[in-house]
Design goal:
Layout: H1 14-21, H2 27-33, H3 38-44, E1 52-55, H4 62-72, E2 79-83, H5 101-110, E3 116-120, E4 138-142, H6 154-157, E5 163-167, H7 174-178, E6 188-192, H8 199-208, E7 214-218, H9 225-234, E8 240-244, H10 251-260, E9 266-270, E10 280-283
Parallel strand pairs: 1-2, 2-3, 3-4, 4-5, 5-6, 6-7, 7-8, 8-9
Antiparallel strand pairs: 9-10
Length: 288
Amino acid sequence: MTEESTLTFDDLPDNLYLEIFQYLPSSTDLLNLQRVSKRWQRVACDYWLWKKVKITPHPILKTTLAKIVRRYFTESTTSLDVCGGVWRRRRHMSSTVSLSNNVLSLIGKMSPKLREFMIEEDNLKDIDLSLLPSSVQRLSFTNCEIPTDCLVNVDKKFPELHSLLFRRCPILQDGHLALFGKLENLERLECYGCYRIDSSAIRVIAENFSNLKTLALIGSPFLGDRDCAIIAEKLPKLTTIEIEEWIDITMNGVTTLRKNLRNLKFLSIKCSSINQGEIVIEGSRVHV
């Protein structure tokens, strides 16, 4: 091939730019790309690249997030993953870093069809999550302080919610879960490293989330055989259960789950009181 016929990156059509840019790990990279050239700026602003917005792992301030929402969010935006960085900057522990009620209202206005909302490392004090659009189907909290005040009215606001995840949220307990009310469409509940989840929380889950298909309770030491009995009786539609670090569970509890949950296809248990702490897996996720 001669030098005159050699193609450069600038010779690529816009649709290939879009294909390449969609693999960037964070939406903030799209902002940086806009500084390269006017053409890259135009392509990086395409609404197709802002359908799923991920502003992690680097923290963002609420003022900056508000500007991004105004500039790039549209009715096509269906997912937002944002990081506040509260654990890295201890001086901000008393207040939220990346969110405000004004920002949430703005998100609801610009993206009324938002389906996924994920927040990491932030304090949700004085935040009203019910300001998010009612179209939200998945809520995820990682390393967050979640005062009960921020969950007021969520039971009526998110009727389509089908997935709820809490990861390393230290104050999460039965009172928080009760505020979600009876979520008839909730199919997936995952709690990782939420050590205050106890039998009271299990009763709330059993009473309010009767259509659960996936339940993960990892790092909840206060649970045991009695909770297995409640789960087996009240949550008959479960197909997947993951259990780790329960102190009071024995093979009796495991047997209760096996015998009574007829739809169960995947069971994963890793507890010191069972199989010498080695992980026990039955079934396969492939069929779930």
